[in-house]
# Entry
Amino acid sequence: MKEFRQARWDEPLLKELSRPGRVGTLVPIEPLAHKNLKDPSLLVPASMRRERLELPELSELQVLRHFNRLSQMNFSVELGMYPLGSCTMKYNPKVSEAIAGSDSMRQAHPLQPDETVQGLLSVFYQLERYLSEVTGMERFSLSTAAGAQGEFAGVLIVRKFLHDAGRPDRDEILVPDSAHGTNPASAAMAGFRVVKVPSDSTGQVRASSVESLVSERTAGMMFTVPNTLGLFESEVEEVCDAVHKAGGLMYYDGANMNAMLGHARPGDMGFDIVHLNLHKTFATPHGGGGPGAGPVGVKRSLVDYLPVPVVSRKGERYVLDYGLKHSIGRLKGFVGNSAVLLRAYAYIRLLGGSGLTDVSSLAVLAANYLWKSLDPEAFPVSHGQGLRRKHEAVVSAKSELSGSAMTIAKAMLDRGMHSPTVYFPLIVKEALMIEPTESEPLEMLDEYAAGLNEAYKALKEGSLGEVPKNTTVGRVDEVKASHPLTLKVHW
Ligand SMILES: Cc1ncc(COP(=O)(O)O)c(C=O)c1O
# Structure
């Protein structure tokens, strides 16, 4: 198998590049000599040792080149703008990486006794305090590994709370039609029936429609503010009141908290339970469903229902506390993704209260600036025309050109910029969901808007041609990746 000189879609596997006898690393022959253990079988019995490992045999340089070629096939926020609305690829400051990668962090083991990791536990305790302060909640459990898992924990809390209150018959959760797909999925996984709440022509949920949908069967409502159209829900307090009056709990999907930081708190709006996507708001790696972090927080009356462990303070000591009386149990090992949590803590400490407030102000400013730089004829908005956007703007790539959102998205790849999120939220035709975040310089926002405008023009005039043409891999079959999903296991 030939070794290529540049990134190509058919990059061979390491196994295919392997040649017998080639070595890339020198393993010490007598690793135990310093312990005076000449016979390794004293540690690993001969019967349990493998004589031969079927590993690829290559030089260190070949391995390095292989992985460099693979990395060049990728796009990252460290290469160019990555304005994926809703999924938010936010720049992660290097200082947080350095802290998370420090020796003391890397060598900590989850099974170490609490007394030996007091520093780390104190950081998590403090992080929990910060998250509570920012959201207006009483306590958080940090353990859940993604926004979606935070949601799942939240609806399990609703379920257990209602069971304990003698109302297991409350089996409906209201979810707006603009919600992220994980909302109805989490509610259904927790055993609830999902009741869809329509958005009006301004893209918002009206309290009157919630009032008409609640009943004796209402367990609660999952509500995203600002919503996935990037719009603040102006009747959020009235919606919370309507659900509370009906006997349900209010769940805040805090994925878009990056637009709210320091300006408004879900706890003050009337929410009982919150999850935060640390990657979106506090600049940590995302991880598809993990390994990220989606802490879940609650008001005082629900603290005992949080997933365990939580980090508690007992006198002068910090402990992993498994003793919450009504806890929904454990959803993830130990305290959660400690290196991700540590990055979020570092980000908060780096910026302080006023810095965090600036983060959301800048994210909102950038989203509105970019939106207003788009050709309104080419990229109209379908909902809330006159309303200012928060952290993201959702536009339609003009719909007489079917499939145009996807084509424009691909054309952006040719310009060395990542596409916006496409075809979400589902209530917008040919949706392009653009979230520049607070980190991009003005010139980049201008370049991005110009790129979208030019791509649209070229598409309309028929001069765009096949896109993308400059990427390692061209058009892929987007549907085939998941339908039918055929997983093969080779033993
Ligand atoms: C509004 C909203 N809710 C929930 C989620 C799910 O979060 P995660 O991808 O961390 O599971 C997302 C994704 O970023 C989101 O945008």
